[in-house]
Amino acid sequence: MFSKRLNIEYEPNELSLLYNLKKRNGERILDLTISNPTKLNFRYDSKHIIKHFIDERSLVYEPDPKGMNNAREEVVKYYSEYSKKVSTDDLFLVPSTSEAYSYLFKLLLDADDEVMMPQPSYPLFEYLTKLDLGNVIYYPLIYDYRDGWVPDFNILEKKITTKTKAIVIINPNNPTGSYIRECDYKKFVALSEKYNAALIVDEVFSDYEIEAGENTLKTVTGYDSNLTFVLNGFSKMLALPQMKFGWILIQGNKKLKEEAIQRLEVIADTYLSVATPIQYAAGKLFETRAKIQEEILGRINSNYKLLKTKFLLNPDIKVMNSEGGWNAILNFENLLVKDDEFVLKLLDNKNVLIHPGYYYDFFTEGFGVISLLTETDVMEKAIELISE
Ligand SMILES: Cc1ncc(COP(=O)(O)O)c(C=O)c1O
């Protein structure tokens, strides 16, 4: 009866079974996997946030497929802080970046067309592509001790086909934390022209710089290209995923851009998904950006430094460099154990939960992923236990 697009296994894995058992037994787990910022004791400017949703103008429905102009103007102001000039005409509001992908896959893909995604990356993208009947083809990010995580263009070009309709760049990538270098972005632009595939650049973590390498781009906004869609939104930028406000910025070759906008208007008009209250509140919510980002960056940086210092001289576990974003990567390849064995033991013996690297499709065993949003006291205790 059901569509084949969701033929996946629903069996819980060993790690979640063990976690649930421990929780049922009332054990305290030091959970280093939480990335929901609203559950981690950040001080939101709650009064300021809430009061702007009480606006009588919200009682009138004025649908616009691109989203309300006043809200798009606020997005334009955000880019002007990076000295980037964008036009409200080139913006579409969406409830989240996840939905932005869905709009773009409807715009670009027929069934069984392909989308290239970085590997490792966040598991969500495979689902998003399959739900819109596309296939994910991964291109590797390889770790270079001088340049950090960089795309392997040789493999990417071997895998690209006439069915490839989009190449996704995550800037900075989740979980590797790597920003795109300018020289690599130019290569992506050239490939997009050569193979007639659009670029989708997901910049949801771009404001969260830890220590970006030289010549990396915080945003690709304003760069010349064939056809590029830049994605961002409040989910990470303001740490407010529940408010459901994001956007697609379209740039590139004039003719392609115009056609993309016309077609996206039809898609967006079919759903009209963005709620009116958030569009009126958007400008006021942008005002909370500096404060919440300062607080989050403070915690991210102190957790990252703590991890780096603690494992500096550890022969078995290394903390890889993160240029930005909300995660850190533990490399325990030297221990020659599988991801599952390492994380299960950690949970079983020490009540510390981290994500195994294979959740994010690392190529080899020996990696674990930790949320840098973790509360500092939890992180401190967990690091002691991991490094014992
Ligand atoms: C790189 C990246 N893009 C997009 C998303 C989804 O964000 P949103 O809440 O805007 O759908 C995530 C989720 O964590 C992510 O890691």
Question: How would you explain this protein's 3D organization?
Answer:
The strands form three sheets. The chain has an eight-stranded mixed sheet with strand order 2-9-8-7-6-3-4-5, sandwiched between helices. Helix 1 (14-24) runs parallel beside helix 12 (339-350), helix 3 runs parallel beside helix 10 (276-286) and helix 4 crosses helix 9 (254-271). The chain is of the alpha/beta class. A hairpin with a 7-residue loop joins strand 10 and strand 11. It has helices at 14-24, 46-51, 69-80, 97-108, 124-131, 153-159, 182-195, 234-237, 254-271, 276-286, 289-311, 339-350, 376-387; strands at residues 30-31, 91-94, 114-119, 135-144, 148-151, 164-170, 198-202, 227-233, 246-252, 318-319, 327-331, 352-353, 355-356, 367-371. It is globular, with a radius of gyration of 21 Å. The site of pyridoxal-5'-phosphate (PLP) has 13 residues, from helix 4.
The CATH superfamily of the largest domain appears as Type I PLP-dependent aspartate aminotransferase-like (Major domain)
Low-confidence stretches: none
Distance between the termini: 52 Å
Percent of residues in beta strands: 15-25%
The CATH architecture of the largest domain is: 3-Layer(aba) Sandwich
The CATH topology of the largest domain comes to: Aspartate Aminotransferase, domain 2
pLDDT averaged over residues: 96
List keywords for this structure.
388 residues; alpha/beta; eight-stranded mixed β-sheet; four-stranded antiparallel β-sheet; globular
Task: Detail the topology: elements first, then pairings.
Blueprint: H1 14-24, E1 30-31, H2 46-51, H3 69-80, E2 91-94, H4 97-108, E3 114-119, H5 124-131, E4 135-144, E5 148-151, H6 153-159, E6 164-170, H7 182-195, E7 198-202, E8 227-233, H8 234-237, E9 246-252, H9 254-271, H10 276-286, H11 289-311, E10 318-319, E11 327-331, H12 339-350, E12 352-353, E13 355-356, E14 367-371, H13 376-387
The site of pyridoxal-5'-phosphate (PLP) has 13 residues, from helix 4.
